[in-house]
Amino acid sequence: MKKWSYLLSGVLIGAVVATAGSAFADQLKSLVGQTIAGEYIVKVNGNSLSENAIVVDGKAHVPLRAVSDSLGVNLKVDGKTIQITNGSADTKSVNTASTGKYEGWPKEKLNGRKAELEKYLSDTEKDRDKAVSNLQKISNMNTAVSDDILAIRSETKKNTEIGIQEAEANIAKYKTELEEINKAIAALK
Question: Is residue 110 a contact partner of residue 118, using CB atoms and an 8 Å limit?
Answer without folding.
Answer: no
